[in-house]
Amino acid sequence: MAGSLQVRNLDDDLIARLKRRAARHGRSAEAEHREILRQALADEAEPDFESLAAELRRLTRGRIQTPSEELVREGREER
Asked: What InterPro entries does UniProt report for this protein, alphabetically (predicted)?
C-alpha cells in the first residue's frame, strides 16, 4: 500500500541541499527524499512481540489493572 507523507517547516537551506543531492543522483527531490528515508530505516529492526510486551509491562508497572473478565461482565450488565 502506497502512502503519502508531507514534511513541513523545512529550512530553505535543507531544501536546496536535497535538490542538489537529487540532481547528483538523477532523481527528483521527492524520489531522493524517499531514498533517504528508505536508507535511514533499512537497518532499524522491528521489535519482536516479546520486546514490546516487556516494554508495556515496564510502562504499566505499579498501575492497578482490571481483569478483562470483570470488564466483560460490567459491559454485559450495562446492556
From this structure: Arc_rbn_hlx_hlx, FitA-like_RHH, Ribbon_hlx_hlx
The Cα–Cα gap between 53 and 59 comes to: 10
Question: Rounded to the nearest 5 degrees, what angle is found at the Cα of 42, between the Cα atoms of 36 and 46?
Answer: 135
Cell of residue 74, nine digits: 460490567
DSSP letter at 65 equals -
**Predicted local distance difference test score (pLDDT) of residue 57:** 92
pLDDT digits (tens, 9 = 90+) for 33-56: 999 999 999 988 889 999 999 999
CA-to-CA separations, 21 to 26, 66, 68, 78, in angstroms, rounded: 9, 54, 54, 61
